[in-house]
Automatic annotation (TrEMBL):
It holds the Pfam family GntR. It comes from Kribbella solani. The keyword Transcription regulation applies. This is DNA-binding FadR family transcriptional regulator. One of its GO terms (molecular function) is DNA-binding transcription factor activity. SUPFAM superfamilies: GntR ligand-binding domain-like (SSF48008), Winged helix' DNA-binding domain (SSF46785). Residues 16-86 form the HTH gntR-type domain. Keywords: DNA-binding, Transcription, Transcription regulation. InterPro entries: GntR_C, TF_FadR/GntR_C, Tscrpt_reg_HTH_GntR, WH-like_DNA-bd_sf, WH_DNA-bd_sf.
């Protein structure tokens, strides 16, 4: 059984700031590709229960995202809240400014990402994957490889999240989603380079192949190489 990313993302919010965290969870689902352009969010009653917030709070969060251009509400028999076909472009905040704001948090996030995602690749390769899990991983790989520049970051995030999903651990999937969101603003601030994308796609294929063939050591090694390259690219643009 595939876990899941929606279970990991649409988990109960912490007490204290339910509106802000509800907005954050919904944005996480959209920006990481858990709910793609044109897709419908879960029904309001179900989503409020999963997030453990009131329907009033959920409606306020959805209204905020509607105003920001991420979702739209439709009425009628087949109505609901749908992710817009075209998402707002992230602001072009200079990478160095974002890194300065993050300060030591950047290295913390990169270290956490490395530990979580290399471990996820190894754990996924060590499992006996179901047909559904294998198909899910291959589909995310193919969609990422065919992605346009506009969609690349989102589908890249979705593929990395899929690796965590097929470990069968919702907690790990949630952690990977959280750390990816910490880094996404910085990743959005650096240019997408055709050569780098081609290289990343080759590395993605090596990672997925190692997982599907049940080689934990190779999966961990391939993910480590891939993440090291991304970290080096970030540091190069921040130097």
């Amino acid at each position: 059984m595939v876990v899941q990313a929606d279970e990991a993302v649409f988990r109960p919010v912490r007490a204290g700031n339910p509106f802000e965290e509800t907005v954050e969870r919904l944005l996480q689902a959209i920006k990481l590709g858990v709910v793609g352009p044109g897709d419908r969010l879960p029904p309001e009653r179900e989503l409020a229960a999963r997030l453990s917030v009131s329907r009033v709070t959920l409606r306020e969060a959805i209204h905020a995202l509607t105003e920001a251009g991420y979702v739209e509400s439709r009425r009628g028999r087949y109505g609901g809240t749908f992710v817009n076909a075209e998402l707002p472009k992230p602001p072009r905040t200079p990478a160095k400014r974002i890194a300065r704001d993050l300060a030591d948090g950047l290295e913390d996030a990169l270290t956490l990402r490395n530990v979580l995602e290399t471990g996820a690749a190894e754990a996924a390769a060590a499992r006996e994957l179901t047909t559904a899990e294998r198909d899910h991983l291959r589909r995310c790989l193919d969609e990422n490889a065919a992605a346009s520049l506009t969609d690349y970051r989102r589908l890249d995030s979705r593929l990395h999240l899929a690796v965590a999903e097929v470990t069968g651990s919702p907690s790990l999937t949630s952690a990977v989603a959280d750390v990816r969101m910490r880094l996404n603003e910085l990743l959005d601030a650096i240019p997408l380079l055709e050569r780098n994308i081609a290289h990343s796609n080759v590395q993605h294929a090596v990672i997925v192949t190692a997982i599907l063939t049940g080689d934990p050591a190779a999966a961990r090694r391939a993910m480590q190489e891939h993440l090291s390259g991304t970290a080096a690219l970030l540091r190069a643009f921040l130097a």
